[in-house]
């Protein structure tokens, strides 16, 4: 099976549409979305509709939960809170219902674990080898049958490996062949709001037969998204950061 692993769309329609167009060139069997379909940007209904119509297998992220009232909005920074209040008002009820029924994690076809934040907590961040070590320990205890976990939430591409108790961060390029030794923790980056210094949409292709992982980067019309942010009277910081990739 060839999977596309996407995450953190954040209602950025232009980024999602460009990604869907790119997906048509790489022939995948299934798209897995690691959550945060909505939040921040001005097209929550359109992005949700694409995920639904395309048959993506999706998780709920923390921004999805907040827009649905499933977690405390006060836990978010002021810019995120303002965008989430706007999103909660803008979302159609049918899309809220669809988002509400999404799971927090998935064990996909017995091949890998898919989570939003971390294997042990959907809201936890993994930014370092320490967080990765905790994730590997959880995988070893609770999911001994799998050796790969895809996670999102940080908006930063990452690839951690664990072998014989040693954790290494190995993200250095765009193409990897995973061995059958050790465990892997892999972040595809963000579709809608990158935070690794590279403007554009980022996602992964994973082939479960060859165990090849390809990080893909897709440009899109950032200026159009920025104009829509301004028109919706969302915080302008959200528009500015798209050009910086932070």
UniProtKB/TrEMBL annotation:
Gene3D superfamilies: 3.60.21.10. Signal peptide: none annotated. Residues 1-210 form the Calcineurin-like phosphoesterase domain. InterPro entries: Ap4A_hydrolase, Calcineurin-like_PHP_lpxH, Metallo-depent_PP-like, Pesterase_MJ0912. It comes from the Bacteria. GO terms for molecular function: phosphatase activity. It holds the Pfam family Metallophos_2. One of its GO terms (cellular component) is cytoplasm. Belongs to the metallophosphoesterase superfamily. YfcE family. This is Calcineurin-like phosphoesterase.
């Amino acid at each position: 099976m060839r999977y596309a692993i996407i995450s953190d769309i954040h209602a950025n329609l232009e980024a999602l549409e460009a990604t869907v167009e790119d997906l048509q060139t790489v022939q995948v069997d299934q798209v897995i979305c690691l959550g945060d379909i909505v939040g921040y940007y001005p097209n929550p209904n359109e992005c949700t509709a694409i995920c639904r119509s395309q048959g993506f297998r999706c998780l709920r992220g923390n921004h999805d939960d907040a827009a649905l009232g499933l977690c405390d909005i006060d836990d978010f920074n002021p810019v995120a809170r303002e965008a989430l209040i706007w999103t909660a008002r803008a979302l159609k009820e049918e899309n809220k219902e669809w988002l509400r029924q999404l799971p927090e994690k998935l064990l996909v076809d017995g091949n890998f674990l898919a989570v939003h934040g971390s294997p042990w907590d959907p809201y936890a961040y993994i930014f370092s080898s320490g967080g990765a070590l905790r994730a590997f320990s959880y995988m070893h205890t609770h999911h001994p049958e799998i050796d790969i976990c895809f996670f999102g939430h940080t908006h930063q591409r990452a690839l951690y490996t664990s072998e014989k108790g040693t954790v290494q961060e190995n993200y250095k390029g765009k193409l990897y062949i995973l061995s059958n030794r050790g465990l892997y923790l892999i972040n595809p980056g963000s579709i809608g709001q990158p935070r690794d210094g590279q403007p554009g949409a980022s996602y992964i292709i994973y082939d479960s037969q060859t165990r090849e992982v390809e990080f893909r980067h897709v440009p899109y019309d950032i200026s159009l998204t920025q104009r829509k942010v301004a028109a919706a009277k969302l915080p302008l910081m959200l528009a500015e950061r798209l050009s910086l990739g932070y």
